[in-house]
Amino acid sequence: MPDLTRPAGDEDVIGGVQARLVAAPRTTAEAAELLAATRGLTVVVRGAGTKIDWGPPPRSLDLIIDTSNLTGVVEHAAGDLITIVRAGTPLRSLDLGDQLLALDGPAGATIGGTVATGTSGPRRLHYGGVRDLLIGITVVRADGKIAKAGGKVVKNVAGYDLGKLYTGSYGTLGLITECAFRLHPKPQHALFVRTSAPPADAAKVRAAAVAPAAVEIDSASGELAVLLEGTAEGVRERAGLVGKLLGGDISDEAPAWWGEDPWAPGEIGVKLSVPLSAVPTLAQGPDFVRGSAGTGLLSAAAAGITEVERLRATCVRLGGHAVVLTAPPEIRDILDMWGPVPGLSLMRRVKNQFDPDHRFAPGRFVGGI
């Protein structure tokens, strides 16, 4: 579709691979026409680019589909605590009145990119992650056909739970154009309890039945921070209990490191997952880690391949795993970013079912999918 595509510029690069064309469809229907008209071209979807350097580079790249024109709230059913939002909408731009989409993300991150990478921030402990909050999805398949599932749609397509399949798929199954989410009432008040208590003390918070929204640690600063949300009176009471329990200070400001990746641009960023009982062991190791002491999902910056291998071995020994999200090109090209992943054969079958010609982000996912 010549009216939708333009020649790629010098900035239209994914993982060091230069695209030939860029298109920015305005609607799901336009996106469907675009994909049907460009069959045979390999595609990478780009939102705001906050996570565009995550994962290996694509094996080939003909067309970037830019979602910057797919923005806005399609519907907000306040009485049902549901919203439908287009994929290119910046997460932080959502204004849903006294209701909340409880997903945290970096400045500029889009709805589609958040779902495609399956990312969620500190408040995942209380509200759940993307898979918990996503109740419906609209996608355009590689052949240009539109598929919808969940939300107000009666049935899923071909028996698949499309929302769960597309969450964390890194854009390898098709183009997400709209998402339906479960909402929550916006908390009236929030306080942080900040302490230098050891990471093991997070277990005291979980056992105290104070319903924290998040319990985060940062081993570089030696800080443990607890977020409490709710009514003003209830939050003050619970914050007081946590403050006495941990010996911490109560503040209405989050720590500077709260919700931020621990790596700088150009460094190796690693996502870690371990059982809750293993979080103190990981936090007391030689690497600085940051993340949730309530869910066992943390992150770290690694100085090189040796450090990655050590982190991965430690996580496996503790019953978890480690995935490299981003790395400099000279590291990324020789490093197994995903590590051993169970169910790879099933993932390959799903990829072949949804994208038989391997048009979408070829090579960006587990096992070169």
From TrEMBL:
Keyword Nucleotidyltransferase: no
Pfam families: FAD_binding_4 (PF01565)
Alphabetical keyword list: FAD, Flavoprotein
Domain FAD-binding PCMH-type: 14-186
Protein name (Swiss-Prot/TrEMBL): Glycolate oxidase
Organism: Paractinoplanes durhamensis
Lineage: Bacteria, Bacillati, Actinomycetota, Actinomycetes, Micromonosporales
